[in-house]
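Hello forum,

I keep getting stuck at the same step: I have a sequence, I want structure tokens, and every attempt I make locally crashes halfway through. Rather than fight my setup again tonight, could one of you with a working pipeline run this one for me? It's a single chain of 188 residues.
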Amino acid sequence: MPGVNILVTFWSRTGRTEKLALAAALGAVQAKANIRLRWLRETLDDRELDSVPEWQENRKRMSRDYVAPREDDYPWADGMLIAIPASLSPAASEFKTYLHGLAAAYRNGKLRAKAARLIVSSPTPSEGNNFERDNTAASALIDLLSGLSVTAVPPESGPSVDPVELARLEGRQLAEFSSRICSDQSGK
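Reply #2:
Ran it on my machine without issues. Output:
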């Protein structure tokens, strides 16, 4: 599987979704994939950020530690993992920017033969990767991906499994699935 590239993009304010993205990236690396880890940058004003102390502290740290998704990430990636919180609004400007970037990559032919997996972090760590909840942002992303010639890799189920361990497993499985897609493409 050497040479498979996984783009892990996440949106996180308090660090819970970041932790899942890091676990997924670790799983991809364990499957011998190359990774790029990208953060959907916050656009909240300082007044809103001050309302929850962890937000401002995390934004400063994540701004230092991560870069935003770039246009060259899409052609580079064989697989994409997107981690978002269940509370994310589809109206959030960060999310809209990401969706527009995906759509532009598709129009430019940069999403062909890609696999994608979505991880939704629950409001409480014990709820795991819960796709059952009413999540309009996740639904919007799934709808968009299904229309962009991207192969959606279905989520794992396992509410008794630790969410971080589940994310690691999902990152590994996405890397392995992406490797099979690459092998099939090169064999044709």
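DSSP finds seven helices and five strands in the chain. If your local run keeps crashing, start a new thread with the error log.
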